[in-house]
């Protein structure tokens, strides 16, 4: 998808340091200080325009949420939603999801979401998939023992790759949904992509995977 350039986006981010820290590495091990209450922290890696993270935060005020997004022209949309909502349990991290250990201390994060990640369908790009071993190692390092990754996609190939990659890494699956919207799963919060893809009749896949004794 071609992103529309927003030359003003970085300046907008800079105007709201209370929501978007200028240097997120400064808060490694100290993210709780960014929130009104000390609560479990959940992060979404690749938050897009922020519909999921904002609605999750509204539905679960007992949890603190961090949106992680690298695209400046996209992450500003999350900021705009947060300016409107002013949720005390939302922070925005402008940075690369492949460098999570630079931003978070071991076990600082309670749960991690991956939603509609880029499938990188070509075999030579397999290492770029957010469920490949190099990324799983990053997640394992910032999650507690038996930490969880919740993953959704409409891409069957990426879902199959993720099942295989996570299994080979030693993770186990609490549950797997092969057609989420036709299941009895309750409390599903949709992303922008999920709304678009499901409206076209695309099947939505979901899994909850757990690291085995990873500390």
Structure characterization notes:
The protein starts with 8 loop residues before the first helix and ends in a 5-residue tail after the last strand. The longest helix has 14 residues. It is of the alpha/beta class and 215 residues long. Strand 2, helix 3 and strand 3 form a beta-alpha-beta unit.
Features:
alpha/beta, single chain, seven-stranded mixed sheet, 7 strands
In short:
With 215 residues, the chain is an alpha/beta fold. The protein is built from seven helices and seven strands.
Order of strands, main sheet, comes to 3-2-1-4-5-7-6
The helix/strand series, from N terminus to C terminus, equals HEHEHEHEHEHEHE
Give the overall average pLDDT.
94
Distinct helical segment count: 7
Helix-strand category: alpha/beta
The geometry reads as: globular
Low-confidence stretches: none
The helical percent reads 25-40%
Radius of gyration: 17 Å
Oligomer: single chain
What is the terminal separation in angstroms?
A: 38 Å
Number of E strands: 7
Largest sheet: 7 strands, mixed
Share of residues in strands: 15-25%
Layout of helices and strands:
Elements: H1 9-14, E1 41-45, H2 51-59, E2 64-69, H3 72-85, E3 90-94, H4 100-103, E4 111-115, H5 133-142, E5 148-153, H6 156-169, E6 172-177, H7 192-199, E7 205-210
């Amino acid at each position: 998808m071609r992103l529309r350039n927003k030359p003003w986006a970085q300046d907008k981010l800079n105007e709201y340091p209370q929501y978007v820290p200028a240097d997120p590495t400064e808060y490694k091990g100290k993210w709780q200080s960014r929130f009104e209450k000390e609560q479990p922290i959940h992060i979404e890696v690749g938050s897009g325009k922020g519909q999921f993270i904002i609605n999750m935060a509204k539905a679960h005020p007992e949890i603190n949420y961090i949106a992680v997004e690298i695209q400046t022209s996209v992450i500003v949309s999350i900021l705009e939603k947060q300016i409107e909502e002013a949720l005390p349990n939302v922070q925005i991290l402008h940075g690369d999801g492949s460098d999570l250990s630079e931003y978070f201390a071991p076990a600082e994060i309670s749960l991690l979401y991956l939603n509609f990640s880029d499938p990188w369908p070509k075999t030579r790009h397999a290492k770029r998939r957010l469920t490949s071993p190099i990324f799983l190692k990053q997640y394992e390092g910032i999650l507690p023992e038996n930490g969880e990754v919740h993953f959704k996609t409409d891409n069957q190939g990426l879902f199959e790759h993720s099942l295989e990659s996570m299994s080979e890494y030693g993770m186990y699956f609490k549950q797997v949904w092969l057609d989420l919207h036709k299941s009895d799963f309750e409390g599903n919060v949709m992303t922008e992509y999920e709304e678009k893809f499901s409206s076209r009749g695309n099947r939505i896949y979901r899994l909850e995977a757990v690291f085995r004794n990873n500390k």
